[in-house]
Each structure stands twice: as structure tokens, then as C-alpha cells.
Amino acid sequence: MGFSVSESTYSRVEATLTLTPFGEKTRVRLSARLAETSTSGFNADVTHEAITEAKFHQDFFVKLEKGLFIEREKL
User: By C-alpha distance, which of 54, 35, 55 is closest to 45?
Assistant: First the structure.
């Protein structure tokens, strides 16, 4: 009886959100990277790549703005 260990790749987004006071407003900065973990047998390799596509960041801030609106309006 034998066994085999398959190869797999797992991806996740890691993000850091920084909030800084800016007068009466708040400045928001998002840093995001894609982390991929590849496993082969009993070994695992992790690679990181910065997410620089404008659409990813724009989509994030649109969703953040909608969430803040819903919270502010108590919807």
C-alpha cells in the first residue's frame, strides 16, 4: 500500500490599511499583496507579489465608501 502527496497552490490577499488624521478628515492608505503558497510533498514555498492594479484599489475604496455610508445612515 502506498500513498501520494499532491501538489497544491493556495492564494490569499494580505492587506494593510493605514488611517491617518488629516485635518477634520481621515487619510486612508491601502497596501495589498498576493501571497501564494505552493506545496509539493512535504515542502511549501510562499511567494508574495504587490497588487498594483488600479481597479483592485478602486473597487476596495468603492466598497469601503458604501459601507461607511450604510453605517452613517444607520441603514
Answer: 35
What is the Cα gyration radius of the chain?
19
Against a cut of 0.90, is the pTM above it? no
CB 27 within 8 A of CB 20: yes
CA–CA gap between residue 33 and residue 62 (Å, rounded): 19
- ∠ CA 64-66-71, nearest 5°, is 95
CA dihedral for 48, 54, 59, 62, sign (positive or negative): positive
Q: What digits encode the pLDDT tens for the residues 3-59? A: 445 567 789 999 999 999 999 999 999 999 999 988 877 778 889 999 999 999 999
